[in-house]
Automatic annotation (TrEMBL):
Organism: Hymenobacter saemangeumensis
Secretion signal, residue range per the UniProt entry: none
InterPro entries assigned: Peptidase_M15C, Zn_M74/Hedgehog-like
Segments crossing the lipid bilayer: none
Protein's name in the database: Peptidase M15C domain-containing protein
Domain (Peptidase M15C): residue spans on this chain: 106-157
A family per Pfam: Peptidase_M15_4
Length: 157
């Protein structure tokens, strides 16, 4: 039996608990990030790096881009949700009206991959991430700051 020093054991446990993207998830993240306009992409990359560099935040979850560019057809599909289709209203923009409908794209949506593999849209985590995004680039607007329709996963320039 080998005796592992306590701090080594803790390090191993932390490494095990750390949320990690699969290669496929990593590729789709790179693909989505590449759709963003350079200023937004750079702000996201910097905010993400700061998040990952924080010993506590990195164990809570890792930021992921759930969507950047979306087609006008997909936007119309989302618009129908909560109106002619079941589900909550998720957007007030029709196809072509959203910043998500441009390429390169000035908008992206963020969530967090947790250690158990689930995805979180925690308002607390998103507001923490929003602070890092705004610190990275003051031109970044966070949907959580909007008065009429709070869209916490949403960031745009
Ligand atoms: Zn959005």
């Amino acid at each position: 039996m080998t005796v592992v020093p306590n701090n080594k054991l803790l390090e191993r446990q932390a490494a095990r608990a750390e949320p990690k993207l699969s290669d496929k998830q990593q590729r789709s993240q790179e693909y989505r990030l590449a759709q963003a306009v350079p200023s937004l992409g750079a702000a996201y990359a910097q905010a993400r790096a700061r998040w990952i560099g924080d010993p506590v935040l990195r164990l809570v979850g890792v930021p992921i881009i759930t969507e950047c560019y979306r087609s006008a057809e997909r936007q119309d599909e989302l618009y129908r949700q909560g109106r002619s289709k079941p589900g909550p209203v998720v957007t007030y923009k029709r196809g072509g009206e959203s910043k998500h409908n441009h390429l390169p794209c000035p908008a992206l949506d963020v969530a967090f991959l947790l250690a158990d593999g689930s995805v979180s849209w925690s308002g607390l985590l998103l507001s923490k991430f929003a602070r890092l995004m705004k610190a990275a680039d003051a031109r970044v607007c966070w949907g959580g700051d909007w008065r009429r329709f709070k869209d916490r996963p949403h960031f745009e320039v």
